[in-house]
Structure formats: C-alpha cells, structure tokens
Design a protein that fits this description.
elongated, two-stranded antiparallel sheet, 27 helices
Length: 671
C-alpha cells in the first residue's frame, strides 16, 4: 500500500514538473518569436483558403535589393546606437561591461542573422527569375518577421544594461564561467598526471588537483578580477546613495565566493606558515582568493563609513558573518579569518566614534556561533574569536558611556555558552572576560546614581536573565548523569567544575573592587541563594545512593560563599541595606543545610557572619544595625539548640553574641 501511494505521489510530481516546464517553454517561445508565429499563421491561412495572388507583374529584383539595403542600414544603426547604453553602463557601473559585450553571444548571433539575411537577399536578386514568385513573397514576409523578432530580442538585451541587477547577474555569470574553466582545466591536468604515475607511487587525485592550481597562470587574478569588478559596482552605488544596488552587489560577491569554495572544497591544500610564536596551517584558497577579497571588503566598509552609510557598513559585517558560517561547514579552520577581518572593521568604526555599528555588530557576531550550532567544532575555531570581538565591543561602549548598550551586548556573550565538550573551558573564558567589565560597570552605576535603576552586569548575575550564571547552573543539573562505564566518575562533576569557576570569579571581584554599595552585590547574593537551593534539592533527590558524590560539591559551595566575607574585608564603607540582606541570606542557607544535617556548610555560614560583623564594626557606629544582626544570629542559635550534634554552631553563635554585646558596651561607654 505504501509503495502504491509513493508511486502515485511520484507520478503526480513528475506530471506537475512536465506541465510547468512546458508552460515555461511555450511562454518563452511566444515572447521571443511572436512576429514569426504571426507570419506562419498568415501563410497557413493563405494556403488553406487558396488565397494566392498573381505576382507576375511584381518587380521582385528591386524589392529584394531594397530589402538587403534596409537590413544593412538597420544593422549599422542598431550596432552604432547600442554603443551608447553600453558606454553609459560602463561609465556608470563597471568597464568590464565592455569586456562582457565584446564576447556577447546574443550580439554575435544578432550580427550573424542580419548579415546572413542581407547576403541572402543580395544573392536572391541574381536568381529571382528562377524562383517561384509566391515562394519569394513568402520568404520576404517570413524574413521580415524573423528580423523583427531578433531586433526586439536584442533591444531587450541592450535595455537590460539600465537594470543594475541584470548587470550584476552578467558579471556573476562571467565569474562562474571563469571558475568553471579553471576547475575543468585543473581536473584534466590532475587526471593526466595521475595516469602517468607508477602504481606504487599513486597519490590521491585531489592532492594533484590542489597542486595543479598553483601551475595555472594568473589563476587568483582571474577570479579576483570579477570580485574587484563587483566591488567597483558597490562603490559607485554608494556614491549615488543607491542602497538596494549596493546590497545586491554584496550578495553577488558572496555568491561568487561560495561558488569558488564549493568547487575547491575537496582539494583545499593546507601549508605551514611560520609565525613569531608557533607554526600555523593556512589554506591555499585563503592565500590566493579569500584573504585578498577580505581586504577588499574591508576597504568597502571604510568607504561606507566615510559616506555615513551605516546600513551598508553593517551589510559588510553581515557578509563576513555569512562567509564565516559557510566556511565553517566546509572547513572550520577557514572560518576564523572573516571574523577577525570583521573585527578590524569594527575597530575602524570606533576610530570615528560610531556607536551603532559596534552595537549592532555584537548581535551579528553572536549569530555566527548560533547559526553554526553544534557541528563538533573546536571551541578555538570560532567561539574564541567571537568572544574576543564582543569583549572589545562591550569595553568600547562602556568607554563611550553607553552602559545600557554594553549590557545588551554582554547578553550575547553569555548566550555563547553551549552544552558541548568545551562547555567548561568556554564558561571559564567568559567569566574572565566579564571580570574585565566589572570596574566599568561599577563606575557607570556610580555616575548614573542609584535612582536611575541601572543594575551593573545584570545579564551576568541577575536571575531574571535566562543566561545568567545562576540559570546556567540550573540548566547544567540536567546533564548530571551516572556513567555506567565509569562508576568512579562523579555524576555531579559538571556542577563541581562550574562552582570552581564561579567561586574564583566572584572572589576575585570581591577582593579587587568595592561592591558593597552596588546593586551587583544584591544580584550575586540572590544567585548564591539560588544555587544553595538547587544543591539542597540534589541532596533530597540524589542521582544514586553514594554519600561521597556530593562531598566535593559541598566543598566547592563553601568556597563560593567566601565571596560574602571577602566583600567586606578591608573595605572602608558598606551599605547597611545590603549588609542586612546578606546576613539574612546566610541565615536562610544555614537553616536549609541544617535541615539536611549538613553541619559543615552551616558552620561556614556562621563563620562568614562573624567575619562580616568583625569587618563592619570597625567602620560603623550604628548600634541598631548590630542589634539587628544579633537577632539574626540568635535565630540561628535557636535552630542549632534543637540537637546536640549542632553544638559547634551554637558555640559559634554564642561567641558572636558575646562579641556584639561587648561592642555595644564599648560604644555606650564612649558616649
């Protein structure tokens, strides 16, 4: 039944294609041969109704000679007048139009048909007495109809010079023909050399093809000629502010590049280039065609920027994006260079203080990684270059005092995290980059003031953002699975690695920067609480029954919480509101872990509270604040008094209580 259904659908598809092709063919015949068809119908009517006329007194010799003269005159006029639009198109767009029309097939056939009919009519003047009058009359009418159709077709061909899209298409086809010619030549040479090799010395014919390209004279120049031609069309369209043509010319360049790479994808030759540091692999197509064109595209970008055409400049960046995505599917080693050239374009736009181009480019860079997706590419092939590009853009926007745009661009940096083999390495690099943003974000918050509502690096730390570090940790829980082949492997290893990155990052921020008066400390505090809640759920619902699975995770979380006390140590000021929030968070975490009998984490929470109190009492005279903090400590003490196994925590709370009472007495004595 399935086979019958398949054959039915297949037959319907074949019938549909046949009807479509027939309609297309008929439409083209009607468009190209309308006068000829009319003449055929006219003579069919004469023959069918026997409407032949007496033509014996008709002087065909003079008529034939006159017609030959008319055809020769038309030929001269047509080819003389057609030079005007050709010349205008060459001046307006590109002088390669002259080269294209010099070898134009339609021009050749038009000249051939006109010349042939002229000669035929001259010959007929000699032999007209030996030919039937009706046949001569029929031939004259039919000849005029054919000539009119040819003339109409050539007119449309010449008029197409006024259409920029048609010109771009002609240049593209010439580029395709050049690439095909080179490719066919190389394959013939490689095939011949492969046959000449001995059986024991046979090598892959693809290698021979790659080497054959180097032997072709002017091989790169032949392709680059047409690419430079398209760039000329782009520049002239920019000068006329013709955005549609400039955009189409960029798209045509991309088509030519793709066509060339598609022809070369199976015989790309990589060679070693010695740099000042390490030897690197470079492709011959990169050296011969791609890199010169990248340079050319960068010059087009500069032209667009100088003419204040930001939309066209972004089209150039988008071109680099598209070619990078395409090359990643061919060979990942080729995809990084377009990204680097795009970054050079962004640097140039920054020299003229452009804001829109770098800001929009951050999304374009992200789309490269997002479009490529998980194709088993190495992290260093694409994403590392994109991270570097977005990092420079974000820093530039901060310097230009546009923190809102910086935050938006930072979102694309966080979105680069992927659940692949390089996840941990990528996350670590992103956290290093974010650490460089912190001083700029804090300064922007200080300049704007608290009432502005600006939250520094909210895309990184705020739980309301899908790709923040707290949500990334939650997503990673789904990848915690038992490896049956490696029972010794900790199923929570990915979470352990994430926490290792987080605690180093947050502790570095707490040590280097004064964040007590920033909303940033509030967002980080909420993230740590969120992570604590996730870990508690893991304790309640473990993946497998092994107690030591979560021990290392516990240890890393303890290190993560060191952010709290380091944030207040050796600081000269602090925010009382945030201080109360942090002590409250530590109290909540202590209570949650005590419920699971995780005494070690609870002890460290209390120790952090003690360290924070010791830090703030040195710089604060607010007795009310200290009393409020004492109430939080007493609540923890009440929780720990419920069992003797929490004795160590109770002792720590008592110690803090005595210290706070002593501080209060000392401050009252001073008063």
């Amino acid at each position: 039944m399935q086979t019958i259904k398949y054959l039915y659908i297949k037959s319907k598809l074949i019938l549909f294609r046949a009807i479509s092709n027939t309609q297309y063919l008929v439409n083209n015949i009607l468009k190209l041969s309308i006068f000829t068809l009319v003449a055929i119908i006219f003579f069919w009517i004469i023959c069918f109704f026997d409407l032949s006329m007496d033509l014996q007194e008709f002087d065909f010799k003079n008529v034939l000679l006159a017609i030959a003269t008319i055809f020769a005159t038309i030929l001269a006029l047509v080819f003389t007048l057609s030079l005007i639009p050709i010349q205008n198109a060459a001046q307006m767009w590109s002088f390669s139009i002259l080269k294209i029309y010099k070898k134009d097939k339609q021009t050749f056939w038009t000249f051939f048909i006109f010349g042939l009919f002229t000669l035929v009519f001259i010959v007929l003047t000699i032999f007209e007495e030996k030919i039937s009058d009706f046949l001569l009359f029929s031939f004259i009418v039919l000849s005029f109809s054919v000539i009119l159709d040819v003339l109409r077709g050539y007119h449309s061909h010449v008029v197409s010079l006024f259409d920029p899209e048609s010109i771009l298409n002609k240049i593209k086809l010439q580029a395709f023909e050049t690439i095909d010619y080179l490719d066919n030549t190389v394959k013939e040479v490689a095939k011949y050399n492969h046959l000449l090799l001995d059986k024991d010395k046979k090598i892959d014919i693809k290698i021979l093809e790659a080497k054959a390209y180097k032997t072709l004279p002017n091989y790169p120049q032949s392709i680059n000629y047409w690419l430079r031609d398209l760039s000329e069309v782009y520049q002239k369209s920019i000068s006329r502010n013709d955005l549609a043509v400039s955009k189409q010319s960029i798209f045509t360049m991309l088509e030519v590049i793709k066509y060339y790479v598609e022809k070369r994808k199976n015989n790309i030759y990589f060679y070693t280039v010695m740099t000042s540091l390490i030897p690197i692999q470079e492709a011959d197509i990169d050296r011969d065609v791609l890199s010169p064109f990248y340079e050319l595209a960068m010059n087009l970008f500069k032209v667009s920027v100088k003419r204040s055409s930001e939309n066209n400049a972004l089209e150039i960046i988008d071109f680099y994006k598209n070619i990078s995505i395409y090359l990643a599917n061919i060979n990942p080693k080729l995809s990084s260079k377009p990204i680097n050239y795009a970054m050079e374009c962004i640097k140039y736009s920054q020299t003229i203080n452009s804001i829109e181009i770098p800001f929009q480019a951050s999304q374009i860079f992200f789309e490269i990684s997002n479009t490529i997706g998980d194709k088993n590419l190495d992290y260093q092939d694409v994403d590392s270059h994109i991270m570097k590009a977005i990092e420079q853009i974000v820093l530039y926007l901060y310097i230009k005092n546009r923190p809102e745009l910086s935050e938006y661009s930072t979102k694309y940096l966080m979105k680069l995290n992927k659940s692949d083999d390089d996840f941990i390495e990528r996350l670590e690099r992103i956290m290093e980059i974010v650490e460089g943003f912190v001083p700029f974000a804090l300064l922007s918050e200080q300049n704007k003031g608290k009432i502005s509502g600006y939250i520094p690096l909210s895309e990184v730390y705020s739980l309301t953002c899908d790709y923040s570090i707290g949500n990334i940790y939650e997503y990673a829980v789904a990848f915690c699975k038992v490896d049956k082949k490696r029972e010794f492997y900790n199923p929570y290893q990915v979470l352990i690695d994430i926490l290792d990155i987080y605690w180093r990052h947050l502790r570095a921020i707490a040590e280097k920067y004064d964040i007590q008066n920033s909303f940033m400390i509030h967002e980080i505090d909420q993230t740590i609480k969120y992570i604590a809640g996730i870990n508690i759920e893991l304790y309640k619902n473990p993946i497998r029954d092994k107690e030591n699975d979560l021990e290392e995770l516990n240890e890393k979380f303890i290190w993560l919480m060191s952010f709290y006390w380091v944030s207040f140590e050796y600081k000269k000021t602090f925010n009382e509101y945030f201080c109360r929030k942090i002590i409250g968070s530590l109290k909540e975490i202590t209570g949650e872990y005590l419920e699971q009998d995780l005494i070690e984490v609870a002890e460290y929470c209390v120790s952090h509270i003690e360290s924070i109190i010791n830090s703030i009492e040195k710089i604060s005279n607010n007795i009310h604040l200290l009393n409020d903090l004492l109430e939080e400590v007493l609540e923890i003490k009440n929780l720990s008094d419920t069992s003797t196994k929490y004795k160590s925590i109770s002792e720590k709370c008592i110690k803090i209580e005595k210290r706070l009472e002593q501080i209060e007495k000392e401050k009252n004595h001073v008063k």
